[in-house]
Design brief:
alpha+beta; twelve-stranded antiparallel beta sheet; 5 helices; 22% helix; 34% strand
C-alpha cells in the first residue's frame, strides 16, 4: 500500500522514465487522460461553437447586430461549454469587428467565467477565449489584485484560447471542416525560479498531413478527425494522440498515451465534467 501510494502521489509531480513494459506506465497513462480531459473538451467546444456560426458572412453579422438578436449556440454545444442563454453580439460598424460574449458560463464544475467568440474573418477564421471569473483578494479594493476560484487555481487554469480555422463551412445545418489550435493557459507563466510552467496544448487534427476535423452543426463532438494533446517537456513530457472521432463512445474519446521514455498505452480520455 505504501508503494502504491508513493506511485500515485508521483503522478502529480515528475514522471521518471519507466521501461516500455513497466505496469507503472498504466498509472501514468490514466493520469495523462485525466489531465487532458478538460483541455480536450474545451478545444472540442471551440470547434463545435464555430461550426454553429461559420456560415454567417460579414453582411449577416451586421444584420444580426442590427436586429439586436443574440447568438443561440444550440442545446448540446451550450451544455458542453456551460453557456447561459444567448451570446451578446457586439458589431463595430467602422472596422466590421464582431464579438460574441457569454458571461456566467460554467466551463467545468466550480469554474465559471466568460467565453468570447471573435470573428477574425467571417466564414474563415475565429478566436474562442475562456476567462475564468476572478474575485478581489482584498474586498476593500475591488479594482486591486484578483484570484481565480480554488478549482481553477488547482489546475493552473488562468486563461485559455483557441484559434479556429474553417477550411470548409457546409452552411446552415451541414457539416463543417475545421482546424483548432487550443492553449491552456493562453499566456506562458513562470514559477518563482523563472522556469516556464507547463501548458496544455491541443491540436485538431493532430498534424498538417491530416484533413480537417469535421463537425455536424449542433453536435458537441466531431464526426471525423483526431487530436494531439501535450503537456510539459523533457522527462515530464506527456502526450496523447486521439483516435478518429468516429470511435468516440459514450463520453470518452479513445486515444493512445505516450511517455517520454517511449512507452505507449491505449487510454480513454473522459469527456465529462469534473475530471481534472
Amino acid at each position: 500500500m505504501i508503494l502504491l501510494a508513493t506511485l500515485l502521489g508521483s503522478l502529480t509531480g515528475c514522471f521518471p522514465e519507466v521501461n516500455i513494459n513497466d505496469p507503472v506506465a498504466d498509472l501514468y497513462a490514466a493520469d495523462y487522460a485525466r489531465r487532458a480531459s478538460l483541455s480536450v473538451r474545451l478545444a472540442s467546444g471551440a470547434g463545435a461553437l464555430v461550426s454553429e456560426v461559420c456560415f454567417i458572412g460579414q453582411d449577416g453579422w451586421s444584420d444580426l447586430a442590427a436586429s439586436k438578436e443574440g447568438i443561440d449556440p444550440g442545446t448540446q454545444v451550450a451544455s458542453l461549454l456551460g453557456l447561459q442563454g444567448d451570446g451578446d453580439l457586439t458589431y463595430d460598424q467602422e472596422t466590421g469587428g464582431v464579438l460574441v460574449k457569454w458571461e456566467g458560463a460554467e466551463i467545468d464544475d466550480g469554474i465559471t467565467g466568460t467565453i468570447t467568440l471573435t470573428v477574425r474573418r467571417a466564414t474563415e477564421t475565429f478566436g474562442v477565449s475562456f476567462s475564468p471569473d476572478t474575485t478581489p483578494i482584498d474586498e476593500d479594493e475591488p479594482e486591486g489584485p484578483a484570484e481565480v476560484s480554488e478549482e481553477a487555481a488547482a489546475i493552473g487554469f488562468t486563461s485559455a484560447a483557441a484559434t479556429v480555422d474553417v477550411t470548409g463551412c457546409g452552411g446552415d445545418g451541414a457539416n463543417s471542416a475545421i482546424e483548432v489550435d487550443f492553449n491552456m493557459p493562453e499566456l506562458i507563466e513562470y514559477d518563482e525560479d523563472g522556469e516556464a510552467l507547463p501548458q496544455a496544448l491541443v491540436i485538431m487534427p493532430s498534424s498538417d498531413d491530416l484533413d480537417a476535423v469535421v463537425w455536424s452543426k449542433g453536435e458537441p463532438w466531431p464526426d471525423e478527425g483526431d487530436f494531439f494533446w501535450t503537456y510539459g517537456a523533457g522527462v515530464d513530457r506527456q502526450q496523447i494522440y486521439g483516435y478518429d472521432a468516429s470511435e468516440i463512445s459514450g463520453e470518452s474519446w479513445p486515444a493512445q498515451a505516450e511517455g517520454a521514455s517511449s512507452w505507449i498505452r491505449d487510454v480513454d480520455v473522459p469527456l465529462t465534467r469534473g475530471v481534472r
